[in-house]
Amino acid sequence: KGGKGVATTAGAAFALCPVTLPLLLACFFVIFFPTHLVSVCSLVSYAFFFVLMVIFGKTGYFHMEGHYVNEFILLALILTVLCFWQHRSNIGRLMRGEEKKVFLHKKLNDAVQNGRKV
Known about the structure:
By secondary structure, the protein is an all-alpha fold.
């Protein structure tokens, strides 16, 4: 429940590659609004972060020599794997259909969490 370090790691990812922030935020919210499942948003955003690092690294965006790019991509892979590892309980709840949804509006969130029809 919460505290998976996603926001902190996202801050580190932003420091490593600032251009990813708007792309990752867009990814997060495009998934959040139809699903309201923050864990799914986090997992997909991290997978997308890894893909972006590979694309930016291989296209020369980072202006680094090859072996440094590979280390950068490896770091992105490690962060992504750690995110999935930290979310293993959420993944289990998702597979069982028990993951709680989050709504931006408090009344709607309370109604859904308490089983009332909206």
